[in-house]
Amino acid sequence: MSQIDEQLRTELQRQGVWVTSMQDLYNWGRKNSIWPLQFGLACCAIEMIATAASRYDIARFGGEVFRPSPRQADLMIVAGTVTKKMAPQIVRLFNQMADPKYVIAMGACAISGGPFKQGYNVLKGIDRYIPVDVYIPGCPPRPEALLHAFMELQRKIDEQKLTGADKAEFLKPDQPSEFPVPRFGRHDLEPRANPNVFQPPVLER
Amino acid sequence: MSATIETLEAMERPPVSMASRLQGELLEVSMGPQHPSTHGVFRMNVALEGEIVRKLKPVFGYLHRNHEKIGENTSYLGSMPYTDRLDYFCSMTNNWAYALSVEKLAGIEVPERAEYLRVILAELTRLQNHASLLGFLLSDMGAWGTPLMYAFREREKILDLFESLAGSRMMCDYMRFGGCRVDPSDEWLAQAKQIAERFPKFLDEFEDLILGNEIVIGRTQNVGKLSAELAVNAGITGPMLRACGVNYDIRKVDGYGFYPRFKFRIPLGEHGDTYDRLMMRALEMRESVQILKQAFAQVQPGPVMNPKAKIRAFRPPVGEAYGHIEAPKGELGFYLISDGSPNPYRYRVRPPSFINLTILEDMCLGHTVADVMVILGSVDIVMGEVDR
């Protein structure tokens, strides 16, 4: 497996024999064909389209296959303001995605509510309900920032272990793959956050 | 109006009674809010008989971000960045409409150079909005990718101009009450002129490639017809209204800014179908290029900001004002009531996308479900403006 001697490996490569481990091969394949969910919420979605379009060309990183169906997608780019009307649908979409699945919170609104945080109808960050892998600040983030987030996600996927005690979360049988969908309560979404995913920061006085 | 209310009630009844009313089996489909071609988080509840749309109920509010309420709790200038996020394709025209209403409210004069810059930026915005709209519309029709790539190639050039001027690609926040924020250099103007002059080349290429295409014609002609009478009664504005043959363009009618100084024509449609709406955008872009050429020839050096305009601690006198402009999507207006305090007492946006969307059902009835996407695409909506 991964205990192969590094020198022997380079020596073999010089002779035209490429030795790898199952984990490296698996992660190499996964990280270079991330299929995002074609799903835009607000202004950031336009920058997401610009990233996929001619100048920035996300296809260079293997992420150009935007799938409209969550069943076929690996990555959800939460691009825009999440309102309280939309949040249940987003959690439901995330639940419908197959494991392993990743989330990029794109822009200030998806991270924290952004400029619209004071609004009564705006969710203060999608990380209250679903786990987020990469956050990109900006309003909206430039396409380069989204590409950077994409590369960070690729690095994260590359480092995930398939076996052992520190194996990737999605391989552990007791890890949830679905998250409870919030419902409309009398004043706000109920629950207001998923305590397994999000703990409000403790203010130190 | 009573007919519409009856329709909505019928949608809420259980499907059995609806089916008996129409003597056919109806299938209810919820399209959206996550749908590849609903242009954002828009949802349509469609009742289908076979593939034919019999009823359509739009569901809004998935992107309601409290724009107007925030505007009433923020200072006048503080709302300017929020207007960028209304129609996020056209931040410059949103800025202009808002600045125009506040200037009316407080009676602020705008220097000549600033007026020219506003026209230049608004027409550049129109170019990039219409180009991307055509790209999106064609990808809704099934020309997946290629037209959008061409459109975004041109859009990026214009966004580069915006970025070098205002510091941001999309959220420009460029206009101020009584002028513009920064003065562009001569190099910027030369570059913008070059881009505007080369734009017809893209239009020729695009029209050759796509607008004469048999499939495009088949998918758009006689689809989603809108009569001039209904369009006027429903308050439709912008290219959608002009596609029905109604000659109404606020640039001509109201003559805000320096538009009366320019020579340009208003393209008008005949049939009011999707093809006319599509062509309207293509023709308007050519007229925008004409306006830009004249503006670049006429613009003179000078101040871009009225020195008497007060930016900090700005309190307009008690009163109300409505300023409207011809945004790329239609009439964009801001209605402001001032009670003399630093915040507006009432802040209301007249969004063109939202009002143009109200007759979606009338246009879609009797067409197939695949045509609904094309008709919706030709309305040119941006959810940030529809839901605010």
Category by helix and strand content of chain B: alpha+beta
Number of domains of chain B: 2
Strand order in the sheet with the most strands of chain B: 1-2-3
Structural class of chain A: alpha/beta
Instruction: Detail the poorly predicted runs of chain B.
Output: 1-8, 13-17
Query: What is the CATH class name of the domain at 33-144 and 164-190 in chain A?
Result: Alpha Beta
Element pattern of chain A in H and E? HHHEHEHEHEE
Range of strand content of chain A: 5-15%
Provide the helix percentage of chain B. 40-55%
Strands of the largest sheet of chain A, in order across it?
A: 1-2-3
Mean pLDDT of chain A: 87
Fourth-tier CATH superfamily name of the largest domain in chain B: Cytochrome-c3 Hydrogenase, chain B
Number of strands of chain A: 5
Radius of gyration of chain B: 21 Å
C-alpha termini separation of chain B: 24 Å
Overall mean confidence score, pLDDT of chain B: 86
Query: In the CATH scheme, what's the topology name of the largest domain in chain B?
Result: Cytochrome-c3 Hydrogenase, chain B
CATH architecture name of the largest domain in chain B: Orthogonal Bundle
C-alpha geometry of chain B:
globular
Largest sheet of chain A, if any?
3 strands, parallel
Kindly provide the name of the CATH class of the largest domain in chain B. Answer: Mainly Alpha
What features would you describe in this structure?
With 205 residues, chain A is of the alpha/beta class. Chain A has a domain at 33-144 and 164-190: 3-Layer(aba) Sandwich (Rossmann fold). In chain A, 30% of the residues lie in helices and 8% in strands. A 3-stranded parallel sheet of chain A has the order 1-2-3. A two-stranded antiparallel sheet of chain A has the order 4-5. In chain A, strand 2, helix 5 and strand 3 form a beta-alpha-beta unit. The model of chain A has no long low-confidence stretch (mean pLDDT 87). By secondary structure, chain B is of the alpha+beta class. Chain B has 2 domains: 2-59, no CATH class; 67-387, Cytochrome-c3 Hydrogenase, chain B. Helices cover 51% and strands 13% of the residues of chain B. Chain B has helices at residues 2-12, 15-22, 67-72, 80-84, 91-106, 112-141, 146-166, 186-211, 214-220, 228-233, 239-243, 250-253, 274-298, 352-357, 360-364, 369-379, 383-387, and strands at residues 27-31, 43-49, 52-59, 175-176, 179-180, 319-327, 330-338, 344-350. In chain B, the strands form 3 sheets. Chain B has a 3-stranded antiparallel sheet. Chain B has a 3-stranded antiparallel sheet with strand order 6-7-8. In chain B, a hairpin with a 2-residue loop joins strand 4 (175-176) and strand 5. In chain B, helix 6 packs antiparallel against helix 13 and helix 6 runs antiparallel to helix 16 (369-379). The longest helix of chain B is centred in the first third of the chain and has 30 residues, at 112-141. Chain B starts with a helix and ends with a helix. Residues 1-8 and 13-17 of chain B have low confidence and may be disordered.
